[in-house]
Specification:
The protein contains twelve helices and 13 strands. It is α/β, with parallel strands linked by helices and about 375 residues long. Bound molecules: pyridoxal-5'-phosphate.
Length: about 375
């Protein structure tokens, strides 16, 4: 706390990111839902041949090449695509552009258990909110989201629960209030959920946000995007150009464009991750875990034989990072990113070792 902090800074409750290992620290990192596979050779070769002298110039403020590549990939036009510095930034622009802050404004709806940046942005920008409780099984209470509100933000699939809503339910939410914007955050949609982009041809109150961090192995490059009607995209550009005209740097723009064009490579990694996810689900169930049916690149699990926090700490001690949230309703769960087959085998071996040490201690 500094005496120079203004009232708003004092009132903030910032997002807490998952632990990042220190340089040189050898950990199995299954805590922030990164892709375990590297970028394609095309992207790697471009990075190695990049001429540093070009960095003296500003990048294209409109990220045209990337917008064109994403538009072709999703079957929309480039004027329906916006690119930013990670989808976190894109979400921040969207919250600022579309959700009202005036006193008495209708609240923005999002699930009580969801991506923790939503309440952080709402507080930063002064947007009134209502957190809609998920059902006991962590599914989305669709009817509640059909009630009038100042907007809706839903991660689909949801994080950290890993569960997805079907298109039929998304349609119901969109159709229930045609004059209200519905933001669908598709950070994990590539891992098995129906993509909502085709719905844009039917609904003008839909806004989709996505990222290259997970599906395209580019979390470190920071590239996210939005897809919506040209009018909605123009609204996001107005906010961007009132804040930072160049959110996607030159290197990010080039590499991300190539990564998006390399669809077969991205798809083969996604398939591998899905196979590993399904195998890890069965193995964890065999060990007595409750595992939610994931449609993402992570598993949301309840280790029924040992408190989640204890298992998290013991795994951390053994050099394996997973995510534990000390939050109501989910403090007996862990979120585990799907790594390579080898990483998941290492995780399972360590869990078995922890369990056998515990049961030996119990017998004494
Ligand atoms: C649901 C959801 N949305 C958005 C993001 C942000 O992704 P990025 O800023 O890396 O694009 C994340 C990151 O974990 C996420 O889980």
């Amino acid at each position: 706390m500094s005496r120079f902090w203004n009232e708003r800074t004092r009132a903030l409750s910032p997002y807490v990111a998952g632990e990042q290992p220190r340089p040189g620290e050898r950990l199995i990192k299954l805590n922030t839902n990164e892709n375990p596979y590297s970028v394609s050779d095309t992207v790697r070769e471009r990075l190695l041949s990049f001429d540093p002298a070009t960095l003296r110039l500003y990048p294209d403020p409109s990220s045209r090449s990337l917008r064109e590549a994403l538009a072709a990939d999703f079957g929309v036009t480039p004027d329906m695509v916006f690119c930013g510095n990670g989808s976190d930034e894109v979400l921040a622009f969207c919250f600022q552009a579309f959700f009202e802050t005036a006193p008495g404004a209708a609240p923005l709806f999002f699930p009580d258990i969801s991506y923790s940046f939503y309440p952080v942005y709402a507080k930063l920008f002064g947007i009134p909110t209502e957190r809609i409780p998920l059902n006991a099984d962590f599914t989305v209470p669709v009817e509640r989201f059909c009630e009038p509100s100042g907007g809706v933000a839903i991660a689909n699939p949801n994080a950290p629960t890993s569960l997805a809503l079907g298109t039929k339910d998304i349609r119901r939410i969109i159709e229930s209030q045609p004059d209200r914007l519905v933001l669908i955050d598709q950070a994990y949609a590539a891992f098995g959920t129906e993509d909502c982009v085709p719905l844009l041809s039917e609904y003008s109150n839909l806004l989709i946000v996505g990222t290259l961090s997970k599906s395209h192995s580019l979390a470190g490059l920071r590239v996210g995007f939005a897809i919506a009607s040209p009018e909605i995209i123009e609204g996001i550009c107005r906010v961007r150009d009132s804040f930072n005209s160049y959110p996607v740097d030159m290197l990010a723009l080039e590499l991300a464009t190539l990564a998006v064009k390399d669809r077969p490579y991205v798809e083969s990694n996604i398939e591998k991750i899905i196979r590993t996810r399904e195998a890890a689900t069965l193995s964890l169930q065999d060990l007595g875990f409750t595992v939610l049916p994931s449609q993402t690149n992570f598993l949301f699990v309840r280790p029924d034989k040992i408190p989640a926090e204890e298992l998290y700490k013991k795994l951390r001690g053994a050099g394996i990072l997973v995510r534990y949230f000390a939050k109501p309703r989910i403090d007996d769960y862990l979120r585990i990113t799907v790594g390579t087959d080898e990483q998941m085998s290492e995780l399972l071996r360590e869990i078995k070792r922890i369990y056998s040490l515990n049961s030996a201690a119990d017998k004494k």
